[in-house]
Amino acid sequence: MECNLKTFLAYQHPKGHFVPFQKHQYHEIVFYKSGKGRTTINGEIYEYTDGSLAIIPKEVEHDEFSFEPTEVYFCLFETNIPLKIQENYLISCDEELVGNIMDVFLHMQKEYSRGLEDTTEMLNHMMAELLIWVFRYGGKAAKMQDETLRYIHTYIKEYCTQKINFDILAESIGYSPSRIRHLYTEKFGQPMQQQQINFRINLAKQMLVETDLTIKEIGLNCGFHSPSKFVEIFRERCQITPQRYRMIMDKNHADHFVIDI
Q: Buried (b) or exposed (e) across 79-93, using 16+ Cβ within 10 A?
């Protein structure tokens, strides 16, 4: 890998600081050592916190707004290999990656201040090292994100009959509500609220076949607050009423089976 470091800066942004939309002719890495805020990259909104890192390809528009005072390191660079962008432009670095990134940036600062004959070559070498750390972690971060989304999917299925606060759920695992909604829909093809309703309907279909509970009791047990709402949503999703579904299953199937939606 070859890298050509064009710009390297470290700066402090006060609370409420806004960087309007911009794009560069070079790739960019932005490391948020500390602080909280929002950045929009290529139309996607992210919320950064301590240890967040953005890798932004050249000619991609991005902005930034700080909710809290923010310490930022960033560099512009060229490289002879394609940037390995996973599903996110912004990743949350673990403690090991934060340490490795800060080591590189501090060495960059020290090398730049020396101004030796081979400083440019050394800085390019350090830029390549930084990129290797980011690429190495990027695959790990993508795997962690996939595991997180599967955890949310399982959580929704397990607690589908209860009222779920999706904003609190997202924040409890370190994501902004808007970001987790986007990622979940992208992976599973529908929003979390719709998936919860599907899980409720699947449970209701099972109970219609396997129990003698009334339609009202099944609706309430599956998280619907009124029989009419349960019947309405069941008909909307299955093109048949719960009563009719039970009759067909009782009539046509000695060994019942239920098809999930």
A: beeebeebebbbbbb
Mean pLDDT of 139-144: 64
Q: What CATH number does residue 244 fall under?
A: 1.10.10.60
Rounded percentage of the chain residues whose pLDDT exceeds 90: 58
| End residue of a domain, out of 142, 157, 177 | 142
Q: What is the pLDDT of residue 68?
A: 94
Is residue 64 within 8 Å of 19, Cβ to Cβ? yes
What length does the chain have? 261
In whole angstroms, give the CA distance from residue 224 to residue 228. Answer: 9
Q: In the prediction, which pLDDT does 141 show?
A: 61
Q: If you average pLDDT over residues 17-23, what whole number do you get?
A: 92
Under a CB-based contact definition with an 8 Å cutoff, are residues 238 and 208 in contact?
Answer: no
The neighbouring-strand residues paired with 47 are: 38
Residue 233: Cβ within 10 Å count: 18
